[in-house]
## 1
Amino acid sequence: MILANGRRYDSAMQDSILDRLETQLNQTLAKPAPAAETVIAAIDKLGQQVAAGAFDEQIAALQIDGAEQYKDLAIRLLRRDYLEFKVRTELGSDFSADRVTNPPPGLAPLRVCTRPLGVLLHIAAGNADGLPAFSVAEGLVTGNINLLKLPQADNGLSLAIIEALLEIEPSLAEYIYVFDTPSSDVAAIKRMADLSDGIVVWGGETAVAAVRRFAHPGTKLIEWGHRLSFAYLSGDASQQALADLAEHIITTRQLLCSSCQVVYLDTPDMDRVRSFCDRFFPVLEAAAKRHQPRTMGAIAALTLQSRTDHLENLLNGGEERLWHSPLCSLIPKEDSVLELSPMLGNVLVKPLPRARILEVLREKKQYLQTAGLCCPPEEREALAERLIRAGVTRVTTLRNMSATLPGEAHDGEYPLRRYLRTANIELTEQTDS
Amino acid sequence: MSFRSKLFGHPNPYDIAGTEELFVSAVRENCSYAYRHCPEYKTILDDEGFSPDQLRCAEDLAKLPILPTALFKRRRLLSMPRRRLPVVATSSGTSGHASKIGLSFGDLWAGLKMVLRVCRKRQLLSLRPCHYVVFGYQPNRKNRTGASKTAFGVTLFTPALSRTYALRWRDGKYVLDLKAVQAAIVKHARSRFPLRFMGFPAYAWFLMKQMDEQGLRIQLPKGSKLMLGGGWKQYYTEQVDKPVFYALAKKVFGLDEADIIEFYGAVEHPILYCDCEHHHFHVPIYSRVLIRDVQTLKPLPHGTPGLVNLISPMVRGTPLLSVMPDDLGVLHDNCPCGLDSPYLEILGRVGLQDVKTCAAGAAELLEQTEVSL
């Protein structure tokens, strides 16, 4: 299914729609970009519809554990006050108003205008439900025309959200095009890329590398790649801190960029790592029991995996595994490497004395995202600074590792700024006066 | 004569009641063989305090220790030396974690008898020659997947006039060539002889859609059949409901619903489940299916969905007595086709393939744990 100018077309129409696209984009670009206020008002109304249950059926069809929290988060992110706060934080107040520079005496002032990049191609990944629509919303708030290539696994939610938005604000129709082009149709995606000023790509290394191969070297690439996160514990963590960490690990199932893969302890001593496991395991298991999966398929997967693990361990000599249950496990390791855990409640525990933070984390600098930090208050400032120097972009409490913190950057950048460009107009005598 | 030979020589492949004792004896015989010849299997049985003599009646089958099919992907478990295993089949997983299952001459012989009986019952065997279109792999020495062997085996049901493959071996790799398949179909539609299709349903679906979009309508010769097996694999999300599939086959090929036959099976459980005229997979006398609770693994009554446990005494080369694939299913009774054997409905895969993740490297890792039959 393709969406163009607010109308649905069959996927077979793709080539003829692409043939006409350049002319249409140029016609739209000839008009002033939509005001942020128009977009925000429409999204706010959309949020009210979500709150009133307009999408409950689609959300239920996703069959995800925690669908309620998912809906609550969506409602919060779509509210006017949140959107205005986001725009203000990322772009400053009144970003769209032009200003004139005030250079040192003898130098001519310039007019400075902030404008949309123009046309954005969003290549969305299927790793979060509704994410493609979110990416388009960011492009719209900054006044861009958005071409969206849906992920293969999209379940229709993104299109439903976008259509609802267009029903609220039909004037946005010419700013959104949605294509269900499969990733294998590189020729078509390249055509879209050639029509775009910027490409926003979400996904793993394969997706990002593919875009870099076909994009024109001059096209701006905005890459939201996959990341790794960890917890760093120094000194004695309180029981509450451990409970927070367990809750985070179990509820995110370690699937997010911001999910804890490794728990680092500020020590070179493996005995301390093991005694930490003794203390943390019951807390983790309690959290896992509280949040047991509810869908039949997920329970079955756990049961099968646990039976397979048990038999394999038995055949490998049946070494007794401490800190292991069908629902979760702790895996102590002597090295300090930051790596992906087996996920789904199975977390790595490693020693990392603070003196080695830089050398260890720099090895994974391309992947660093969140560090959940737990330490004595007087050390927090210095440790946070060291983690950030190593390349971490978020330092949070253990509880909030995966929380959406209002006003925060995304992987080290404010995304809205990247969807805009700064243009200058030289003042002439006429305009100057 | 072994109990297995007697069971696989039984004339009626769906006479469950009449072969109950024989089935239990054959499982006991095979279990005790595996216990003596496969040290890993002995370790597992000893660990669970189970001995082959505990198998006395049908109820005891549920006590057999269950081996998840994933275990065969992680460990090679064999009950015979490699030289006595003429066939080592692998599951068609592309992930590099494929099961390796060894089959002995005796296993193949039993399998052949089973295939002939089941297919005769469904009237698939004929002396009338046919053209074959295989929606699967062209046989190749490097391809050891069970799917390619089955697809080729099916082309032996009748004398084959020609064989056209959708996945062709070219320059050291397989390429999907639906155009060549379409050309062969258009050509064979004018033949006096029937055309038979065999292979993955996803490719059949893509081909029919492609032909439909081009407005192609063909009336295949009488006796033509569409035989499907192997599941939807990586095209899981494109899976369509059976009635939609049948309607398109009627529209494009002029095939009636009764000419569409579906198979279910797995490398780790090489029993041929062939659908009846109502497209239900009845359990044949060569196996038993238990549906188990997804949490406790306790057997469930018919009609309740759960994990699928497949039990069979067919294979001696590998201890495949009681295996569990990553499928969710349910057993039903009272099929209007008249067979009293219960039938298995596959409801889908267990949960992991729907996992969405943005942790670096996670998608690749999860991909590996996905199991394909």
## 2
Amino acid sequence: MLIGLEHYLVLSAVLFCIGLYGALAKRNAIVILMSIELMLNGVNIAMVAFSRYIVPSLLTGQVFAIFIMVVAAAEAAVGLAIIIAIYRSRETIETTKIDLMKW
Amino acid sequence: MAVVGVAAALAVVLLRDVFRAALSLVLCFLSVAGLYVTLSADFLAVAQVLVYVGAISVLIILAILLTRDVTQGSPTNRLRFPAIFVAVILLGLLTFALTSTRWAVSTAPPLVPTTPALARGLLGEGGFILPVEIAAVLLLAAVLGAIVVVREK
């Protein structure tokens, strides 16, 4: 079987949906961050697949993927810092118990 | 490669042990790097291993160890079944849209190696030099913000 563009795109959709389920249904804030990383990886696969099969000589998709990686690294650093700060002040990272701004 | 990646991703959201979920996240990142190699994106594969497997996984494992909520596992909230429903519906819609579209696939061979072309695209004439500098400022701001947030009062 020849592997084409559609296979990579469906795989990236599967990864994105697994990450979406984790981000919606989990209570631990760190697991939610891990699911968001999964979603970003799915999008990256789609970008690189488009770059390989539609414009093989321009590499614009790979440039996009590099910027997504930069933003993901920044987001992981800030997100984990916020989680640790919340854990220090409230002794929990369960998102259902962090209800300071809930009316 | 794809099977390993999807299985590891499922393990991330289904395992009850947070630490094991983090380790299977590392496996998922590695298999995504392998997929980049099959897509002839050599620079991106190396960057994936460096940034995700090297840096982000270590950050996540460090945060898990610092917060000591490992004993409670990773329970789901009461939105579990709506979340499954939404994810499956979205997956069906995406798969239908992706497979029924006729993509204008080019038959040109891929560039090997991609690093010089990527450098030209990022830093060369008419490239993405302004976004590169903005990304540098963004990273600096994120690191400073993280330090300020976790600093002891």
## 3
Amino acid sequence: MKERHTRVPSDALHLPELMLFMQEFWAAEKLPPAQAAPFELALEEIFLNIVMHGTPANAEPHVEVSLVLLDDALQITITDDGPLFNPLSLPPPDVAATLGERPVGGQGVHLVRQLMDAVRYESDGAHNRLSMTKRIDR
Amino acid sequence: MKIAIETLAMATVVVPEGRLDFGAAPDFQRQIETALAGANGPPKAVIIDCAGLDYVSSAGLRVFLVTARAAQRASVSFALCSLKPAVREVFDLSGFSRVLAVLADRRAALAQVSQAAS
């Protein structure tokens, strides 16, 4: 089992760094390039969701990302010490709405739920932790 | 992300290349707005040829949605074409393939917008 971790401040400026972290892991483990996009999307959407949920005064929240490569799947776990919030509590957007009715936001978490095989939220009262797993065919 | 803009008689074709993520979305939006406004007034149609687009996140989807609405207001036909499988999946799961004109290739997109304009 291969594992890698990183930790960045909860600020959108650090998104490129997280993407690079994922891409380097992908290359190092020789995973199929064509299957990378859903994992990158999950990382981008959940990280930005955490960033957008704000920074309490006088706090510098951080986000920790861990990648665990299982036999036939990759698990991404994203932990943060920002305000407690379960992204899975968001209602799904109405995918049948017409062009004019579609809200411009709210897609990210919905996409993650659809793209990943399993998504789980937990909190210890001080941290949010979202674990996402998806199969990789290799 | 690299963005090329081709001006054809029937349509302005925007060709993004690379990754349309949170960081790339604002510039992409500006470029499309410029294409939509046109040098001498709005073009008949705007096509986004996604053949070189490797990745799109919700920030990127948002640009397509905002653009489609702006095109509708300006009476400019709007279509997307040539989505790679990973990009297509995001469009399908979000339901955007149903509200936007998503065509298989550039020829089909040109046929679609010329039909819509006539």
